[in-house]
Amino acid sequence: MNILNLKSGELHLTEEILANIFLGQVTYWDDPTIQNINPHLKMPHLEIVGHISLWPLS
């Protein structure tokens, strides 16, 4: 993740939030579930974008 002015370890995410990001249920950084556990941060309304690499199964 690369969000301007965010220092390493400053953002907190729970396992549930991470799962919901993976499932596409949390799609923006300013989602209330993220903002509620990070009240010290003002998260931008930016879409969460990631890359999943699949290893060859051979």
From TrEMBL:
Entry-linked Gene3D superfamilies: Periplasmic binding protein-like II
| SUPFAM superfamilies listed in its UniProt record | Periplasmic binding protein-like II
Protein's recorded name: Uncharacterized protein
Native species: Entomobacter blattae
